[in-house]
Amino acid sequence: MQNKHLLRILFIADIYGIPGRRATHKLLPSITERFDVDFVIANGENIAGGFGITKPLARKLISYGVNIITSGNHFWDRQEIHDELDNIEYLLRPANFPETVPGKGYTVIELPEKCIQLGIINLQGRVFMPPIDCPFQKANSILHKIKNKTNVIFVDFHAEATSEKKAMGCFLDGRVSAVVGTHTHIQTADECILPNGTAYITDAGMTGPHDSVIGVKKEAVIEHFLKGVSVRFSTAQTGVRFEGVIVDIDTRSGEGHSIQRISTPLETQSKSQKEQE
Fold it and tell me: For the CA atoms of 152, 156, 161, 163, what is the dihedral angle to 10 degrees?
């Protein structure tokens, strides 16, 4: 039984294609029970074949036990999601897209059992990424709007450069409860509580096929690098792991109490089991 003043959040690292969805479906219930999780956030920008997200697949993640889905630069890869955004309360796109873009980049959710509100912010970096508004200024703007509602705030910062992610962690240290990096699909070993009380990790990893190059069949990626030509990328299928972090937040102070990495293999399944999903 955990401390009544702690909120335990499970963040599921970038869920990649069918293998990632399968790992989430199979392992999320046991992980939620094992760690006594209160709330589940998942980055789902790669759930549609490794590129993008659709409303039916987002609904699947919710049916598995995910509460809120965050995203990143691949969010727009599936055209059909564009017209659905304003009607999907549980799906976030990066907040620092222009205001004219549909959807929302942050939310504040009531958690009656903890007698608190939880703020969740989705931001995207700019270094080595497509052009986008400044995530640092956007973070300031959002915090100005929600700080009077809650001091329990979780940030998914979807960015390429480790320097930009660490800079965001330092920038928000003491102002939010957690800053968790996504996008590179490689879990880093730098989880910590920053000096002013913010839980931080540069990248939470990937829930998907790790016998791959960040989720893609390795042979195709190697061919691309060897020949310098465009190659059709397809989702790898083996070495599937469920990755992410468990973050404990003190609901009185809003400070991060602890952060723990998770990297759990999905046991090999029979063909018939996969077909049932």
Answer: 0
Residue 158 bears catalytic tag: no
Classify residue 247 by burial, with Cβ atoms within 10 Å: 0-12, 13-18, 19+.
buried
Ordered by start, the domain boundaries in the chain are 7-276
pLDDT tens profile 26-66: 999 999 999 999 999 999 999 998 788 988 999 999 999 99
Q: pTM for this one?
A: 0.93
Residue type present at position 205: G
Burial, 83: exposed, middle or buried (Cβ in 10 Å; 0-12, 13-18, 19+)?
A: exposed
Select which of 25, 74, 183, 224 is catalytic: 74
CATH number for the domain formed by residue range(s) 7-276: 3.60.21.10
